[in-house]
Amino acid sequence: MTFWIVFLVLFSDLWYTGSTSRTGPNIVLIFADNMGFGDLGCYGHPTSITPNLDIMAANGLRFTDFYSASPVCSPSRAALLTGRYQTRSGVYPGVFYPGSKGGLPLNETTIAEVLKPLGYATAMVGKWHLGIGANGSFLPVYQGFDHYLGVPYSHDQGPCQNLTCFPPDTKCYGMCDQGAVLLPLFFNNTIIQQPVSFPDLVPHYNKFTTEFITESARKKQPFFLYYASHHTHYPQFASALTAGKSLRGRFGDALMEFDTSVGVILEALEASGIQNNTFVFFTSDNGPELLRMSRGGNAGLLKCGKGTTYEGGMREPAIAYWPGRIQAGVTHELGSTLDLLPTIAALAQAKLPSAQLDGYDMSNILFSSQSSMRKTMFYYPVDPSIKLGVFAVRYGKYKAHYYTRGSSHSETTPDHDCHIIAGLKAHEPPLLFDLESDPSENYNLMVYDYQPEYDLVLKKIQELKAQFEETMVFGESQTGKGSDHSLEPCCNPQCTPKPACCSCIP
To answer: Do 348 and 449 reside in the same domain of the chain?
Structure first.
């Protein structure tokens, strides 16, 4: 039985059959993986082929100062979907693994759960990375999504010898974890393929997203589509359509395939006649994995990358696109993934969760070119703690570093501040940078260009930091609950010996 027969049997019962009254705009949230500030053509990379994202940037609103809430994957995704710092939900330290006992707590409210009461159809495609749990209890279908087609964690978290490019017998660059199960592909809470066929994966995603958009439009039902791509996480892969077609090698091929998927989504919206009633937002989960050199992405002129609280680790490309509603331009106002839940809730006129949020409605920026409601950004490390608190604070154009530390994810660069050997260092007074004139964080104002007014700036930042940390209640660590090999996803769970026997290719 082929993959498509199995998939179509499941797919036949896909569509939500509830209310079809249109009460708000459609929402499409596109999330890249490990994409750096300097990776896209519209952000200045000379050889990236990203025509669809470039079109969105040219006809939408491109952000220059947009931030993820974390420099690594799982915490950043938790913050995106809940509008709350990962410290509140307990998605820290680090990321979830195939057998992790924890996951995004079910009492956290996601964007999908905010929209569901208004009759929205909800679907997630791609990388989840917020836990699986016993019997799949943490999967997206238990977090407000009607449907899920995707992979539950990063594709290097398990053997990926099967990860191939085009032609099929050409191995992609990259090393992956050994000793875990082969990567599964889920439809809702059922494994439909293990291991995943990577050259075929994105075409399946494209078909799913097109049919979800088309059917929702036919029913005149508002929808929320969360497309969390595996691209451009290392190791890279691409299907036959883009493999070998870019000027940036395997990374460029993967980026090109990601951009092609963006184009598929935009084409489906236009073909269904709903592009003028759909809010599309694109950004990335964290900065590039510089450890992988040219195959890990590019932070542009920003300092360091993934795993650090320097700008390269958390400042991301971001584009808001809505033909007829959002005017073309560039904004230097502050924004964050934390702001997407309250912004989407406002657009849909949905009720906000009762939990304390850390995001702000970005409508002022999107529709009227006014100042952002966000005046500060707090930078937590990969392993936040109550004792150390936030590592850095941005206030307006100024950024103060209370602690700095390198990361293994940002090795290989000439800047030794980025490397793992650059251990935890406290700064008193804090390092202070003007990010408008020095986005690369090269020149500490307290040393290179000291002015008495900077003491007042640091005093204000310290007050804001203290106020924020007084409100921060750390949730129970979910990634710290440990792992159990019996929880690793297996399409035939009674088989032996594991993990080798966990393989089912329709």
So the answer is: no
Which pLDDT tens digit goes with each residue over 192-236? 999 888 888 999 999 999 999 999 999 999 999 999 999 998 888
Residues β-bridged to residue 99: none
Q: Is 349 left (phi over 0), alpha (psi -120 to 50) or beta?
A: left
Query: Domain with 409 in it: what CATH number?
Result: 3.30.1120.10
pLDDT, tens only, 336-374: 999 999 999 999 999 999 999 999 999 999 998 789 999
Copy the structure tokens of residue 404: 């700095």
Q: Are residues 105 and 231 in the same domain?
A: yes
3-class SS at 30?
strand
Q: What are phi and psi of 208, to 5 degrees?
A: -60, -50
Same domain, yes or no, for 371 and 438? no
20 lies in some domain = no
Show Cβ contacts of residue 170 under 8 Å, excluding neighbours closer than 6 positions: 164
Catalytic residue ranges: 73, 129
Q: How far apart are CA 82 and CA 353, in angstroms?
A: 9
What's the mean per-residue pLDDT of the chain?
Answer: 91
What is the model's pLDDT at position 405? 97
Give kind and range of the element (H or E) at residue 260. Answer: helix 249-271
Higher pLDDT, 374 or 499: 374
Q: Among candidates 398, 340, 397, which has minimal Cα distance to 371?
A: 397
Q: Which domain holds residue 57?
A: 25-375+476-487
Say whether both 298 and 222 belong to one domain. Answer: yes
Whole-angstrom distance, CA of residue 342 vs CA of residue 168: 44
Distance CA 370, CA 331 (A): 10
Regarding whether 210 and 165 lie in a shared domain, the answer is yes
Q: How far apart are CA 379 and CA 499, in angstroms?
A: 38
Structure tokens at 175: 């090393």
Beta strands in 332-487 (DSSP E): 335-336, 376-379, 392-395, 398-404, 425-434
The CATH number of whichever domain residue 341 belongs to comes to 3.40.720.10
Element (H, E) at 63: strand 61-67
Cβ 78 vs Cβ 103: under 8 Å: no
Closest to 381 measured CA to CA, from 352, 402, 359, 355: 402
Q: For 62-83, how does the pLDDT look when each residue is reduced to its tens digit (9 = 90+)?
A: 999 999 999 999 999 999 999 9
